[in-house]
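User: Hi! Is it possible to get a structure for several chains at once, not just one? Here's what I have:
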Amino acid sequence: MKEKVIGNRASRLDAVSKVTGKAKYTDDFFEREMLVGKVLRSPHAHALIKHIDVSKAKSLEGVEAVITHEDLPKIKFATAGHPWSLDPNHRDVADRLILTDKARYVGDSIAAVVATDHLTAEKAIKLIEVEYEVLPHVLDAEEAIKPDAPTIHDEKKDNIISSFGQAFGDIEQDFQQADYIMEGVYETSIVQHCHLENHTAYAYKDTDGRIVIVTSTQIPHIVRRVVSQALGLSWGKVRVIKPYIGGGFGNKQDVVIEPLTAAMTLSVNGKPVRYQLSREECFIGTRTRHAIKFYMKTALSKDNRLKAIHIKAFSNNGAYASHGHSIIMSASSKFRPLYHFNSVKVEPKTVYTNLPTAGAMRAYGVPQICFALESHLDDICKKLKLNPIEFRKRNLISLGHVDPLSKIKVRSFGIPECIQKGKELIKWDEKKKSYENQTGEKRRGLGMACFSYFSGTHPVGLELAGARIVMNQDGSIQLQVGATEIGQGSDTAFAQMAAEVLGISMDMVRVISTQDTDIAPFDTGAYASRQTYVSGAAVKKAALEVKDKVLKIASRKTGLKVEDLDIVDKQIVEKDLGTPLCSLEEIAMLSYYDRIHAEPIKSDTSENIRTNAVAYGVTFAEVLVDMVTGKIEVLEIYNVHDSGTIINPSLAEGQVHGGVSMALGYALSEKLMFDEKTGRPLNHNLLDYKLQTILDTPKIGVGFVETYEPTGSFGQKSIGENPAISPAPAIRNAVLDATGVQFNKLPMNPQAVFEKFKDEGLL
Amino acid sequence: MFSINHILEPKTLKEAILYYDENPKLKVIAGGTDVLIHLHHGKLEDVELLSLRKINHLDEVKLQEDGTIVIGAMTTFSTLFRDKIINQYISILAEASVSMGGPQIRNIATIGGNICNGAVSADSAPSLFTLNAILRLESKKGVRMIPIQDFYEGPGKVKLLQGEILTHILITEDNYHEMKGKYIKFSNRKAMDIAMLSVAVTGQVEDEVFKDLRIALGVSAPVPVRCSKAEDYAVGKECSEETIKKIGELALSNARPRNSWRGSKPYRQHLINVLTQRAIKEIVFKGGGKDDEKN
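Assistant: Yes, the chains can be modeled jointly so their relative placement is included. Here is the combined structure:
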């Protein structure tokens, strides 16, 4: 019997090493006499740097170097973790220096110290004297594009990074012919990833004079490219090593600290320097999720069909471009293959402000637009007295839908079943009835929200992945991938894929988890939920190549044709009869030691994926609202996903638990706050930034509707970011159901609920 | 890495008091959950610490023969919320103790440290205020006993005289006998959070009349406060919905909540009113009064 590995609840390959504390992360590696790097950060939101005096800091005992922008190449570079584009028009905005020559937000990196220890470095930081000329600052995206707003980058006088939009259909005609036109304004807040492991790296020069950087990153190959560009070095002069990482969620899909870490080691003649951010620095000095304000306007016909949608969006990008306009472009592409519209027009503006830089964060703009759209749909239903589930079902696209702009085709479509399943799990109809006409201090409500999401970035970005397999004498293999394990479990999923193709057990697959750009296959990294779909295709290709080589040797040995042979449970078998012919080990031994034909079995492949697969899902939530204190509690929550074939249900459930947990905070409590007058962060620590704890988290229900995606190497689609998308609007819609109040701004924390209840005359 | 120059770890209280007397610049450290954060944030530098952790018997809860409960200042919140005496006689302090921080913090943070840190959000304070706790302070000059209500001076400021160490917290029997208590900590999260506002109520209900009622608030003024007006109004009144409503409103008169990004002044005022009412309803219920008031 052929044992199926795909779809099994295989244990994580790194489970034992992680729970026993043996897994090594960046900070677990040491070099002799490692120095410590520290950064002086701007206390001003916007200021010119007139003069920096580092003499006192330099003369402090234990200080090895102090650097400012004057010591570094005057090269502006881009930091986003995107594949390099040969087309200059398709590149990220290069607006950064390693250390800035102008302060653009509170926390901007002004100068760096390299010292023998942390305390000396801190002392030296305080001895650096900077003369600033403070400029007026702007924190709000809509304010920043007014003509009299201060200019943050000279290259973009109007502070607009881009206003490139998307449109199809005749939107004017659709609005003219509409029976109803509905409008709403929706706004999300600035939140942060809060990965457990802060950004950390160390760097040194090796004996060949190359820079070696060990770093906690999702994108080692891109780090190599960006560090080289920032320092004006040939790309081969930089080597990047990525060990285990303690979470990324997009914040490490960006080259944040590595160029400076490299500059630090260069400033001390290649001695090893470690640069770690504190939690407080991580909150402001890395990336955040864009706060986006949406103005939604929708045309409907009187049979309750969506006709057209016009979205104006203002995306607050903070001080530097990072992923910039890609975020809102992702949002305005990925929501489309869900509901049918005759015409769509998205007019976004991505805007510089004097805030920490926004970048990639789990689901890349889609949680924002999903909050706006799905809240808007419920507001429409409330106004037209429609059943929100039936209204959505009526307007869904269907299998075979092709997006007019991206040309992405929907080849698997499980959302109707997801909705049905979610509705049953939460007992929608039954509860709806019993919650009618509530009047008490505590009221219950039900809400739901749907989403669509992509698998990877095609057709916008290159989707290249590499995999390499070496077969050992006993038939076991080493699998090496360029794609990074960042906690999501991709290594385990890849091992399952290789085991499935090769007919071997999981314990015969060793995945080399560390990516070292000197030796790892090329892959641009962990982002866009691309891993199982894109990198999985490369793993399958590599495994098939190995299988073919095994069967060729077996064919030579047995005289049977390759196509008549298969590998099942570590045995070479005759396909039709299933009879074992010899062990895989015998073939592997021949590949090493046959006196005439010896040639160890290996493969080294790449896949360039030029398709995309649309994944779907839905959240159903039940809330309890305290009408007196404004506290909202989520009682039940279910996420049901169509992610095609589920490679490993345990890992997929883990993704859903994590994603929903993140989204609960997004909905109810998380918000990075800044002082309006100074631009200073107010709550950049884990006490005051209200990340939810396990006690705040209800039991998270998970469901899958397994479709088969024909373009997936095993029928799979994305799952990584997806669970974080729809919970916030589902919770918001449940609150609407419970209270009749429309919360159009996240988060719905007690203070915000109190204010809204006051406005509505409920208190 | 912390900027600590030196640490003294005496084994007896006597020794500690001598050290402190000799060098008043010493910074007293108990569990360290506040001191180390100040060091981490650079608010303290190059400190010389006087640790009380190695002193024996300062971390015990005892019931004296006269009925007084004596809590050692070094008792951790984990010990407190599990302690039999606390749970049997002053369960309100157990409620407050378990609401503080997370398990790791509760395992190390001490009630004495919590009080001496002087935070307006200290979880132990409102409950101790309603229990009329007495603080035992010791220095080379001798022992001083002061009511906790007189100890707080301002945000982060307490009335410790030079060389003085808080050794015990005392609660006399008349302050807990036949009393019921309720602590409500209002925060964004259910764990690992500081109070946006907190209310402690201790009282006695007899024949549906408030025989005694004490209300204390946290994060409602520069220091934790007792709501004397509301208390005076309540005593002797029937515990009706109307009376409780009036008590809630009166509780505001002793409060001076701040407007801050952690919570607006109008919201805090609203919470003082409604949470005081909720806490009172809880003790009315616990005290055998009207049970239809729960929820």
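Chain A has a mean pLDDT of 97. The interface with chain B takes residues 117-119, 122, 440-442, 628-630, 669, 673, 675, 682-683, 687-688, 690, 692-696, 749-751, 754-755, 758, 763 of chain A (CB under 8 Å).

User: Great, thank you!
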